Fold these 3 entries.
Entry 1:
Amino acid sequence: MNNSVFTSKFIVLDGPDGCGKTTQTKLLSEYIESLGCKVENFRDPGTTVIGEAIRDILLGHDYHGMGDNVELLLYMAARAQLWKEKIAPALAAGSCVVMDRWLSSSCAYQGYAGGFGIEAVVDVANISLERSFPDLTIILDLNFDKSSSRLGESLDRMETKGGDYHRKVREGYLKFAELYKSKKDTAGIIDVIDASQDIETVQRMVLEKVLESFSKEKQL
């Protein structure tokens, strides 16, 4: 494949905690780099000085009383700064940006599990961010029993919210995909992959989806 199809593309792999998105983001980035395209990875929330300070607040155990609306606004603030400082310049320089969270996370966590509303989260994003949706969002779907077994012993504030909350998070990701999968003109390409299989199988499915998505786009 010509590496030009990845020039200035914004790709997000997302899903419940423990679904393997960090691993798959690394493997996808390595593949794209092997084609000769520069890849940038940033963490959401984080990377910038402001984003890392917000991350400490969002994930630290001193803030258990935080409301879902407060979480949402903090995530959006971190993303706005990340876009300005890192993502926009990287895309403008022709790099491919690959990340393991973005708007889809807030839709699942604060929007669905937290009750704020998925479409309301998108409304807030459209007001807060210069760009709400990436070119491609791949949801790595995994049920709570399997995803929770993959987490380590040291959990952040979001990871300690309990099984009922995280089961809703998974439902939220699937609902997000259902709501926006057909809206490619405004939401980019969105798809769901079964992440219950081994790393190599999931990697192959991710690559197939990425190549299929951008090959079709190149032909249009």
Note: The CA atoms of residues 114 and 209 lie 30 Å apart.
Entry 2:
Amino acid sequence: MTAVPNRHADKIAIVTGAGQGIGAGVAKRLAHEGATVVIAEFNAANAEQVAGEVNGLAYPIDISDTAQIEQMVADVVARYGKIDILVNNAGINKTQSMMDVSPDDYDRVVDVNQRGLFFCLQAVAKQMIAQVPDDVKQAGRAERSYGKIVNFSSIAGRSGRPYAAQYSAAKWAVISITQSAALFLAPYNINVNAVCPGVVPTPMWDDIDRTQAQRFGLQQGDWIKSTIEKVPLKRAATPDDLAAAVSFLCSDDADYITGQTLNVDGGIEMN
């Protein structure tokens, strides 16, 4: 998909979970369009690799740790002076029967996908508000956007999943968090939206396919193949498909869009 030159020139962006898969694709797209990107990633080696590719900043972090989130925001502001974009992409999944989910299984998925996302949004939003001129704050409305936040939900956040119940619950919550944040940040014209990916061949989907193939007695690759065949557009998504949507939502073209959740799934979900 064609990038838009200088679309994000002079912008500072944080992308969580940007060391591989969709997050790496988003980081590369934003950088290609002019942004300076912070690769906020649990795996330090992956963070360094992607940061090198985009001439960005590798920032190893456990997004479930609020103290690390606060430190990241402070470090980014100290280095660059501001934050213009946050893409909350970091996520984990564990495919298992709903009856087999332990409290630890549940908490780990929620800690990253829901709680970590919320507190990362909160910390960055505080900084974005601090960047808004006082006269705009006093007026209670803004003529232009003072920040863009995009949260990653999932098609699993649109309907239940018997073999990923805790993941589905967390991703449903992301949609609610997105709407709440959009309402709270509207007076500052800080736009908050979400995207729901469908089937994207990434390491996470490789794990899902492996687990489901074992569960249903299939050859590895058969389960995801049959899943892709049910997509109305008859193909899986690529990280570039998601990156294009995120880049748009982070651009000036999306200044009048907030509180929305966009399915980028080839038509799997249509709500």
Note: The radius of gyration is 18 Å.
Entry 3:
Amino acid sequence: MIVSAVIDSLSIVGFAEEGTYTVEVFAVDRGENQSTPTTVNISPLEAPIHGILNSMEGTQDFGGINISYLNPTRADVSLNMSVLDDDGNLVFRESFYTSQASSTYSFRGYDPVPTTFVIYVEDRWGNQTTTRSFEVTPLEDVFLDKAYWAIESTPGDESFSEYGFSANQIWDGYWSNQWNCGHTNFLPLPHQLTLDLGQTTKLNRFKLYQRGGSELYKHGNPKRFKLYGRADLNGLPIYDPDNPGDGWIHLGDFESFKPSGLPPGSNTAEDYEYQDNGEDFVFGYDARQHDIRYIRLVNVESWNNQMVTVIGELSFWGSVIN
């Protein structure tokens, strides 16, 4: 460990367990001259990974399991998940990296059958906890095929095919690239988009992927937005720009989250990974009861307060009615 010449203390970190450890400390100057080592005994506190593991709670979720956890020291850790296969073998599936003090994460992509999820926590020094197991039955969660999607042009909608971009890039299966997105003109917000999902569904959740690259968490990526839905477009009232949800079912108000909390233009590796995975939003119970085919997205505020809206990708999950 190399330290500055102007400090008078030394932090020794990275121990996995409590206990008494003997360490040797010595000084080296700029000329590479080394002092005689000094032996000291240290008693580190328990590594944060153990408290994180003990705080975990697991509940069934759409397509998997939702894990809540506490990480009061905001340690950089990974939650590592495996499942037991039909032969009782442990099969590694996914790691999730986090430094959040208190949060949740959903491991998804599993059939609605009883499943044993096995999780351990690892820190940046490679220290690992024991495992905890959770047996849950994931809720049905069908990915809605985007081959049926189309723009449904309705009064009040903005074009998302400006500046050389195309609205269908919002569902082309690519994101995290600043050159692949739907892009509006620069106009005062709110901005409105209407999608035909091509199938009638009961929706569970959706993911919004930001326009990535150097534009992540800025330049029109939605920060606060609303979603509305309908089973059909028959009998819609005359459009009122002051009430874009008139005649529609309100599916929820949503706000984008930035793990680092840094201002626009400054992003961490955790920010990039969080958005590359897609920002996951779950609809409330009432919203999940309705048959929905048409989606109206109203962007109320963009990151960096820019008067433009960009969307890297949208994905929806639920149960298909027809």
Note: The first strand starts at residue 21 and ends at 25.
